[in-house]
Specification:
With about 600 residues, the protein is of the alpha+beta class. It has two domains: about 325 residues, Beta-lactamase (3-Layer(aba) Sandwich); about 160 residues, Nuclear Transport Factor 2, Chain: A. It contains 15 helices and 28 strands. The strands form seven sheets. The chain has an eight-stranded antiparallel sheet with strand order 3-2-15-14-13-12-11-10, sandwiched between helices. It has an eight-stranded antiparallel beta barrel with strand order 17-18-19-24-25-26-27-28. A four-stranded antiparallel sheet has the order 20-21-22-23, sandwiched between helices. The longest helix has 19 residues. The two termini are about 40 Å apart.
Length: about 600
Amino acid sequence: MPTSIATRATPTPGPRPSCKLLAPLALSVAMPMVAVSAQTPTPPTDAQVASRVDEYMMRLENLGYTGGVLVLRNGHAVVMRSYGLANRAAGIVADTATVYNLGSITKQFTAAAILRLEELGKLRTTDSIARFFPSAPPDKRGITIHQLLTHTAGFDSDFSPTDYEATTRDEYVRRMFAAPLRSAPGAVHFYANAGYSLLAAIVEIVTGNDYETALRELVLTPAGMLSTGYKAPGWAATRIAHGYQNGRDWGTIVERIAPAGAPYWALRGNGGLHTTLGDMARWDAALNDARVLTDSSRRKFMTGYVNEGPDGASQYAYGWAVMKTSRGTRLVTHNGGNGIYVAEFLRFVDEGVTLFLTSTVSELTATQAVRTVSRIVFGQPYELPPQRVSASAETLAQVAGTYRLDDGSRLIVRADNGRLMAEAIGQQAYGLLFVGDTTSPPGAAEANERARAIVDSLVVGNVRPLLAALGDSAPDSTEVARQEAQLMDGRRQRLGAFQSAEVVGTLAGPEGGLRTTVRLNFERGGATNIYTFNRSRRIEDLGARPHAAVELFPSAGGEFRTFDPRGGAGMRLSLANGSLLATTPAGQVLLRRQ
C-alpha cells in the first residue's frame, strides 16, 4: 500500500487535492429497504431505472446533495439530470448545462492525447523521457511513457504545496528531476499526479501547443466535447457549479485557474478539467468507435497492466482502473475530486452500461451515491434515504450545544445557516456519530494512544513514531519528513498557527483493522489525520483531510439523524429535558448538556 500522506485513496486538503478516490469515511444510517429482486434479479426497464434513480436522487437533493447523474444503456441516455443548487447564494438550479469538475478523470484525457500522438507517429509509449527531456538525470532517463501512464515511474505524487501555486513547466519538471525516486522505474505502482503532469509537458513539447489547445485538437473536438476544458469553452459563470463544505461556499476551481498561465503544473494534465453531462455522454460514445482512437489504441487504453494493490483486485491501465464486478463482468472506471468536488465514471463494458455521477457538496458525495445508482440499474436491492422534515430555528437552537458522554467524550452540535452540524471528540461520541453505537471496537484505546503519540511527534518534526508504525512498508525517513513538513506548511498557510491536537476516535476498519482519526486545531479551523491500522496493528494507509462537521437532519417523531447513502446503522437523537437521548443497538444513551 502507498504510505505517502497524499495517497491515491484519500482526498487531501494540502499538497494535492485532485486524486483518485476510494470510498471516503462517512456516516451510516438505517434506511428502509426497497425490495427489487431476489438472488437473480431481472434487469429493470429503462423507465423503471429512470423513475427509481430520480426518486433516490430527489431524496438526496432534499438532504443537500448537488450534482449530476448520467446513466447510459447501450449508448442511450436513460437518465441525464442534475439535482440541487449550482449556486446557493444566487439560487441557480443545477441542470444539464451545469459545468462540473472532473478531478483525476482528467488523466484519461491526457492518456488519450498520448495515444493519438502515437497513432500520428509523433511518439511511442515505449519511448523514454530522455527523448523529450535531454537533461533528465541518470536515475530518471530510462523512465518510459508507459510507466508514467501506469504510475510505475517511481515519482512521488506531487511537487507543489497546492494545485494553484504559480509554477512554470520548467520549474515543475526541475523539481521532479531533482527529487529522489521513491522506487525504481517499473518496480512499483504508486499513484502519482506528477507523472501525468509530465505527460502533459510531453504533449506540449511534441505538439508545440499549450496542453489545453493540444487536447482540444487531438481528443475533445473529435469526440464532439466542445463544453469540456480548463478555460477554452468560455462558460458563463452562472453555469459553473460551486463547491460547498460545512454549508459554506468554497467557490469554483475555474475561479482559481483564471490567472494567465493557469492551470499551473501541479494540476495541468492530471486533474481539474471541467465538463457537462452531455459531453460525458459524447465521450462514452467516442470510446465505442474510432472517432478519437483506433480499435487497437482503445484496447491499449483500457488494458490493466499493473496491480493497484497487493490483493490484485484491480489493475491500472492508462488513466483507468480495470476490475471484475461481483457478476464476473468487466468494469473500467476512474474517479477524482478534491474532497469537495467529486466525480465517478464507471463503464460496465460487458453489460453496455455507463454511469457518470458528480457532486459538489463535501458531506454528500458521488462516491457514496453511485453505489445505490448502480444497484438500481442492475436490479439489486437498494435503500432510500429517509425524508427530511422541517424544523424551526427555535428547535434547532434548542438542540445546539455541547454534550458529554460517560467516558468524557463530547458531541458538539451547532446551528449553522438553518442546519444542525455535529462534531465528535472522544471515543464514545465518535462511535455514536459515525456508526450509531458507543461500543468501541477491540484495540481502540491502544490505537487512539498510538495515533496521539504519532501526531504529537509530527507537529514538532519527529517522524520516528510514524516510521515505527509503518514498519517494513516505511519509505525513506527523509522523504517521510519532507512530506509531513510540506503537509503542515500547507495547513498553516491556510489555517494559521497550529494550536492543539485531539484524538477523535477509532472505528472498525477493513479486514479486522482499525481506522483512527486525529483532529489538528489551527487558528482558523481544523484538519484531520487518519491512520488505518491492519490486523498486525501496522499502519497500512494514511489520510489527510479537511475537518468536516456532520449534518444532523430533522426526521419524523422529533428525531435528529445522521445519514449516509451507503446504508447501515446511524445516530438517532431526541431532546430529553435539555439533554439528548441517543438510540443505539444496546439501548438508549443519555448525552448530558455541558
